[in-house]
Amino acid sequence: MTNDVITETNKMHMSTDKIVEQSDLYSQKGGTVRTPDQNPLPVRVTARDVKVFYGQKQALYDVSIDIPERSVTAFIGPSGCGKSTFLRCLNRMNDTIEGCRVEGQIKLDGGDIYDPQLDVVELRARVGMVFQKPNPFPKSIFENVAYGPRIHGLAKNKTDLEEIVVSSLQKASLYEEVKDRLHEAGTGLSGGQQQRLCIARAIAVSPEVILMDEPCSALDPIATAKIEELIDELRQNFTIVIVTHSMQQAARVSQRTAFFHLGVLVEEGPTDVIFTSPGEKRTQDYITGRFG
Ligand SMILES: Nc1ncnc2c1ncn2[C@@H]1O[C@H](COP(=O)(O)OP(=O)(O)OP(=O)(O)O)[C@@H](O)[C@H]1O
Ligand SMILES: [Mg+2]
Q: How far is the CA of 101 from the centre of ligand 1 (A)?
C-alpha cells in the first residue's frame, strides 16, 4: 500500500464521528505499512523507533507501533525476525540478557517504561508474561498463584489472598479442574493445565498488559483451543500481545496483526486486512507460506 492509500484510508476513518485521537504513526512517511482500525480503541502501549542490539549485532530496526487496549495484537513472522526480542522490550525482560541494548522509546499509559527511576519489578506486574514452555514454580497450585499478590502486598489478609487465588484460577478457566487439589504441586498438572496455571499466575497481580510468547506451541490441539478461548475472554479486561507461528491462531484470536521480517516491522493492521489484502508483498508471501 502506498502512503497515498494510507492517507485515503485515514480520511475515510476521520469522517466517522467516533474518533479516538489520531496516532502520529499514520502521518509517518516510509517504513511500515499501516492500516488503521475503523473503530480504534484507546492505545495502551506506544513504541517509537525501537532498536535492539545483542552486542554488536542489531536485531530490531526502528520498530514503531501502537498497541490498543482490550484487544489481542498478534506478532507474526519467520523464525529469528525479532518477535520475542520486541515482546521482551515491552516489560524490559531484555534487561536480564547480558549485552542486550534497547534504544528508542516505549510508553505504557504515557509513562516511559525505560525511565531509570522506574521500579522494574512493578513494571513486570503491570505487564505480565506467559512463556512458550509452561514454567510453574516448584510449589503448590495455590502458592503459584498466591506468590505475586503476596510479594506485591495485594491481599489484606488470608481470606483476601484466597479470594484472589480462586478468582484468578476461575478467570484462567482452571478452577473447576483443580479446586480439590489446590495444595498439590503445580508441576503435576498436564501441559495445558500448567499453561493455564501460568496465565492465572500472571492475572493474579492484575496486570494491564499480558505478553504471551508462543503460549500454545507445547500444547495439543484441545489444550490449544482452550487457551485460545481463554485469550478471547481475557481481552475483555486485558491488553494482550501474542507471538505465534500459527497463521490460523493469529487469525482466530487477534484483532490486530503485526508482521516482522529481518528485524523490521513490515506491516501492521486489522487482522482481517493483513490476512485478506495485505499491503506488502512480503506479508502476502509469508501468510501464503511462500517463505518462513
Ligand atoms: N540472547 C540473545 N543473544 C544474542 N542474540 C540473540 C539473543 N536472542 C535473540 N537473538 C538474536 O536476535 C534475533 C531475533 O531473535 P528472536 O528470538 O527475537 O526471534 P523470533 O522472531 O522470536 O524467532 P522464533 O520465531 O524462532 O522464536 C535473531 O537473530 C537471534 O539470533
Ligand atoms: Mg521467539
A: 13
What the block records as the C-alpha cell of 231 is 485469550
Using DSSP, state whether 9 is helix, strand or coil.
helix
Q: Domain boundaries in the chain?
A: 3-135+208-287
Query: 38, 40, 41, 59: which is closest to 50 by C-alpha?
Result: 59
The Å distance, Cα 80 to ligand 1 centre, comes to 5
Please say whether the beta carbons of 180 and 51 come within 8 A. Answer: no
For the chain, what percentages of helix, strand and coil (3-state, to nearest 5) are there? 40, 25, 35
Which residues lie with the beta carbon below 6 Å from any ligand 1 atom?
A: 54, 59, 77, 79-85, 97
What local confidence, expressed as pLDDT, does residue 25 receive? Answer: 87
Atom 30 in ligand 1: which residue has the minimum CA distance? Answer: 80
CB within 8 Å of 167: residues ≥ 6 apart:
none
Q: From the CA of 59, which ligand is nearest?
A: 1
pLDDT tens per residue across span 218-264: 889 998 999 999 999 999 999 999 999 999 999 999 999 999 999 99
Q: Provide the strand spans (E) within 109-141.
A: 111-112, 127-130
The residue among 266 and 223 whose pLDDT is bigger is 266
Cell of 119: 521500579
Tell whether domain 3-135+208-287 is in CATH 3.30.565.10.
no
Q: How far is the CA of 131 from the centre of ligand 2 (A)?
A: 10
